[in-house]
Amino acid sequence: MRVMKTTVEELQEQLNHAYQLRKKAESEQQQTEVILRGITALLEANTSDDLFASMYDIFRQIVPYEACFILQQNKPRYLICSSSTDTNMVGTQWLVDDILKRVINGSTLAVFNIHLQPTWEKIPEEFKKPYTSALYSPFKGPQNEGVLVFAHKQKGFYVQTHIDILENYKNFTSQAQLGVQTKLLAIESYALRKEKEKMEATLINADKMASVGLLAAGVAHEINNPMGFINANLNYTLKQLKQIRDYLANLQTFLDDLSIEPNFKPTEKISTLISDFSQQTPLKTVEAILEASQDSLDGVERVRVIVDELRNFSRHYEENDEDVDINECLKSGLKLVNNELKYHTKVELNLGEVMPIKGNGGKLTQVITNLLLNAGQAIDEGGIIIIRSGLSHHKDHDECVWFTISDSGCGISPDQIKSIFTPFYTTKPVGEGTGLGLTISYDIIDKMGGTIEVDSQLNIGTTFTIALPIKTSVPIKTSQ
């Protein structure tokens, strides 16, 4: 009986052990499946935010936490938080105390109360306030060692069981983080490749624009010759028509006087002529022709001005210094782009007294044209562009000439303002902007010794302010 009892007890113990093993295996299988799903999500992530979110979801399946973050080597005696589920933690500096030093050397450690640990004393109170206990695990990054930190609001939450779990998964957590770094590099590589393609497309577009500039110069030259003939012929026609009008007016006066002579007996033809002139038919006809001819001449003059501005804009500028009237440049630039603005934008021109500056008028007009086109593209139907100029003192130039171009458009975000003068940077789709306009404008103004500044508010509008040093003391008065 004794032997049988012992055998039953051993059997029960073995069954209990087998049950525990089965439960452990089921738990590990379930955990493994969860981790595999997390890894799949990790591999499918296409942005850095999605990537880190997937990684932290995986870690949550291993160890529960209120916050999880990564500390990486930064400088002697300090680590830096490079990533965290709590965004307040990102960028915080962590003193390498004895506990962190042991973790970096390979130990997984739990801290009962973080407020007693020296490194947490350096963290701002508002950042560490939600947490009380922490669990640290070492990992080897692509370049150096780091620390994976789990934080919880419950004091003493992390115990030996959590340490054992992390020890078992130490290699996995390191591999997960290495996987994240590798995927990040792949995402960055893809982004760089797309940026390279965008830059190449921009360069091609810039080359096309240069060709268009040359073509415009040629077209302007070809238009200029026949427009000269048309202009001369219209002027001659107007001169002759005015003489005919004067002759007809004199003739009408003569006929009026003749018709009231008591002894005058007109023939039928003369009577018809007097009747026509009494109704002023010939004079009205000549006046209508004169008016139409004058309208044509005005149109020719507008074409001539546009052609001249186009030739000036399109030609390859030489580096030369000349006296430049910025008000004339502003008016010239506005004429060039007026057709792009007049259908959806109102333009106010408030030009003040200015002084000549030394520089290249054509290049300054190029800057103005670019700023006006940008302003027009930023504005929806019914917007307004205000152009101002004047004299003032500037912190960099003492007395200077300035002009501003303000629009009521969509505005520029603070992040974009930092980059708008960077070569090839553009907020427009490929093909709608080279990303070089503001860069070239900045370079032109800088070479003239001036400054270009931008002030913008999203959905309110943008103002570009250009200040240029004065090289003469003779003021220029302007007409609007």
From TrEMBL:
Coiled-coil zones: 1-28
All residue ranges annotated as the Histidine kinase domain in the record: 218-472
Catalysis performed (reactions): ATP + protein L-histidine = ADP + protein N-phospho-L-histidine
EC numbers: 2.7.13.3
Keyword set, alphabetical order: Coiled coil, Phosphoprotein
InterPro entries, per the entry: HATPase_C_sf, HATPase_dom, His_kinase_dom, HisK_dim/P_dom, Sig_transdc_His_kin-like_C
Superkingdom to which the source organism belongs: Bacteria
Enzyme class, spelled out: transferase
Annotated Pfam families: HATPase_c
UniProt xrefs under CDD domains: HisKA (cd00082)
Gene3D superfamilies the record matches: 1.10.287.130, Histidine kinase-like ATPase, C-terminal domain (3.30.565.10)
One GO MF term: phosphorelay sensor kinase activity
PANTHER family for this protein: HISTIDINE KINASE (PTHR43065:SF50), SENSOR HISTIDINE KINASE (PTHR43065)
Protein name, UniProt field: histidine kinase
Annotated organism of origin: Marinibactrum halimedae
